[in-house]
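Case study.
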Amino acid sequence: MGLATVVKGSGGRVPPLTDHARVIIEPSGHITVHTGVSPHGQGSATTFAQVVADVLGVTPAEVQVLHSDTALLPAGGGTAASRGLVAGGSALYVVLQEARQKLALVASHLLDCPLADVCFQDQRVFPQHDPEHHVPFPQLARAAYNDAQLPPGVEPGLDFRGSHTIRTSPYAFAAHVAVVEVSQETGAVRVLRYVAVHDAGRIINPLLAAGQVHGAIAQGVGQALLEGMVYSPEGQPATGSLLDYALPRASTTPALILDTVETLSPLNPLGAKGIGELPTLAAPVAIANAVMDALSHVGVRHIDTPLTPEKIWHALQGA
Amino acid sequence: MVYTGQSVKRFEDPRLLTGQGTFLDDLKLPGMLHAAILRSPHAHAHITSIDTAAARHAPGVVAVLTAEDLEGVVESIPTRRETEAEELRPPVHPVLARDKVCYVGQPIAIVVAQDLALAQDARALIQVDYAPLSPVVDPVEAMQADAPIVHQELGTNIALRTLNAGGDVEAAFAQATHVVRQHYQVQRLAPAPLETRGIVADYQPQDDMLTVWDSTQHPHAIRDHLAQVLHRPESRLRVVAPDVGGGFGEKGGLYPEEIAIPALAMRLGRPVKWVEERWANLLAFHGRGHTVDVEAAAQQDGTLLGLRVQIVADLGAYFLMSTPTVPLLTSHRLAGPYKTPAMHVEVRGVITNKPPTGAYRGAGGPEAAFCLERTIDLIARDLQLDPVAVRRQNFIPPEAFPYETPTGLTYDSGHYEKTLDRALNCRSTTAGARTRVSRAPPGSRSSAWVWPRL
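After joint prediction, the assembly is written out as follows.
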């Protein structure tokens, strides 16, 4: 059995973490978000739509998230280093507050209620103490484009943009436990059980957070047991094809038992911490620690990864 | 909050699962040409001649590009100026090799033809004569006085050097009742995304507009870098990342092809597509590649007093964007979740005749965590302590945040014991351990790890 406890910051190297967002609410009430992050499998279009939905009281399905085109936004930080939600989500949240503020101004005028009493919920706006007296969100959006329905001094239109900078990086924590079996005959390692608990602050979408964890642990198994670029003394690659370079596969990925703890980050308005890479720190060494634990009886102190059957078999023969 | 915390299914999936995704190789523009790249078969060699005549006259070939054609047209490949490094010597990184090749896979020439098969056939007709040189493959050997020097202009293979230290390490080792020493090698890994790298570039002369579709994680950064290396204003450049089939850090920099293919599209006035072959992907960029020596000073009860660490990073032959960054990050991230009061981490980044390295899945985090977490287990083993107890003993407590590590990181918040307890308390965790012990098949060896009492 092996254990690893690790921390990982969100964002590349040295903070600050800056990103950009634009929120356009059309007269129909449909919402388009442009983000400076560039998701490629993380599912940010879904999580960001959830953030929008909760700030503006709409459903995520009404929100379209566009990204990865320099014609859309003047700047963007892209997606890497566990920064997507922390940097991109925070910028979006900050711009959404401006959108909400203007919508609330328009709504207080339409509903004839104090600004502070305006509630956004279930695709409607209403005064806090009088939910029956509501206006549907699309009607509010249309009013915001109609000069005649606006309070004095408010310009028509619902187009908001801005950036947000986080001065220092939020740090997420994980504890992984691996249970492995090592064959004395062949040196082969089988991961029998794998438990991983992550504290990455507020989790917007548990399904997608788990997806990030699955992928990272799969690659961690690769580092621990399978992968490695091998070069000859002449500098020729011996692992230049996928026949020779052993990628992790579904069959090498253990069933995972996952859980989360939420210690919010005080550094960003979502309380979020990046989760994408966190398991890549823990998985290789949790497995390596488990294998060394299994071999400790025969006096093996350390073997470097990848822990191939060949290396382990040799260690067992020497013992 | 209604939707925060809900497992909403991905809105991205219906399109992708029904085959409606548009990945780089799905892009087709009218009149589009296809590029194939000739790469070095040698790790280290002088190029004595390049003869492209036969390739130029091959069927369907529109152009053959070598380093000469890019002279004065594009800048060399940019890298990050890491200001925290005490010494930083980035070698000049040409888009195409001219006089010398420094790793197997380095781009030398590009053939552009009517279709990909014709481009690949013509590629085989390019004649390059090489005078092989002695390669340096092992980074530790590369630092020795008699090792061949990869980039003569640097005068050394050590291209990066820094010290990251805090607290009184000498005092820590003087006080220690036990010292653990261990040598670790964290191997080079190929990111191997499902979709390899790729570019389509299209230049519209009537608008003086260059559009680049790039399988990248950072379209804005690519636009900013291309503006510099191609000498164009940002407003005359648009970079779009279509659906991207995995990045893992590999698609985070600016590679030779990302400069050469747009330059070709401008020169030819026609769209050009290049998609990286799988073998080329495995030889273009790697992560990790750290050789690390750790000395840990501990008390009898497992309390960590100090860490002395030497990192030798195998940087590869050239610097891409994040090449110098990763070993610096490793030095910071060696602090881990522990309140180790004193740390002294020396970093040397070494040039070798292998592909450039850089950020891959955690970028310095997994390198650091591997060495630190193995060392914690060795401390527990030597002192006959429970590995869980040693971790608890050294955790930064919740009330200590914000916490500054001796390596210069500031942690914002955390409840490490609570999270660890959750992992250990999980019924399935314990069940797993017992299952293993009781059902271990004949011939497999079980360990006597004592499950901690919580």
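Observations recorded in class. The longest strand of chain A covers residues 171-182. Chain A touches chain B through 121 residues (CB under 8 Å). We will return to this complex in the next lecture.
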